[in-house]
Amino acid sequence: MYVLYATRGSGNCFKPFLTLCQLSISFSVLEVDVLKGETRGDAFRRINPAGAVPYLMTTQGVGLGESNAMLWLIADGSSLMPQTALERAKSLQWMFFEQSKLEPHISPARFLGHIAPHLGKGREADIAAWREKARAGLATLDAHLAGNAFMLGDRYGITDIALYGYVHVGDEAGIAMQDFPSVCSWMERVREQPGYVPLSELCSTAKPFAAGHAA
Ligand SMILES: N[C@@H](CCC(=O)N[C@@H](CS)C(=O)NCC(=O)O)C(=O)O
Q: Do residues 97 and 133 lie in contact, with contact meaning Cβ atoms separated by under 8 Å?
């Protein structure tokens, strides 16, 4: 059974979580508390030397980092996978876009402006700059989704999950999401997919990582 190391509220951790749920795959979640610094502690680094979540442990005991890579493993052979060589290449194109034009801007603006605002004091200029960069990425995404129901056309899949992870919490990063109407319609369509569960469920049945691991 898969074990997903995750932190509460994380869009990156939500991606493999949602994929596992939608494919009805058995897994458990161990909650690693970023705010308490557990990702940087020795106990967690013995599991993932990169000190980041999500981290996925396979049934065979092989660890895998990077949220979007996890989607390719978890969904392999399922209806959520891109089907043709061109679709696979397009999927990777949008996943790299997500990791360079969206996630690095939405995530810190949300973390310092919404999740841990006490840490954002004095960082207002940085937060404003991240919001502007995120808006530029969202404009590109909006133009794409104006002509496509889902990221690769007509069919929902892992590319949508990869993009949705952080885009759907853009409002918590202080971004006026109504400025991107095609993105908003697409988010509605994603929420209508079978087996959809909200981000608030991510750690609802999780066991705390710290309880089972010496520091
Ligand atoms: N590119 C990575 C990003 C992973 C990442 O930045 N994770 C954050 C939480 S969302 C983290 O573990 N931060 C821990 C820390 O900074 O100590 C992915 O997509 O999985």
A: no
Going from the Cα of 54 to the center of ligand 1, the distance in angstroms, rounded, reads 7
Whether residue 138 is found in the same domain as residue 59: no
Does the Cβ of 40 fall within 6 Å of ligand 1?
yes
Phi and psi at 65, nearest 5°, equal -100, 175
Residue pointed to by tokens 């493999």: 16
pLDDT tens figures, 157-200: 999 999 999 999 999 999 999 999 999 999 999 999 999 999 99
Structure tokens of 153?
Answer: 């056309």
Is there a contact between 78 and 25 (Cβ–Cβ < 8 Å)? no
Domain region containing 41: 2-78+199-212
Q: Which of 127, 131, 80 is nearest to 102 (CA)?
A: 131
The closest alpha carbon to 103, from 174, 11, 200, 6, belongs to 11
Q: Ligand 1 centroid vs 51 CA: distance in angstroms?
A: 8
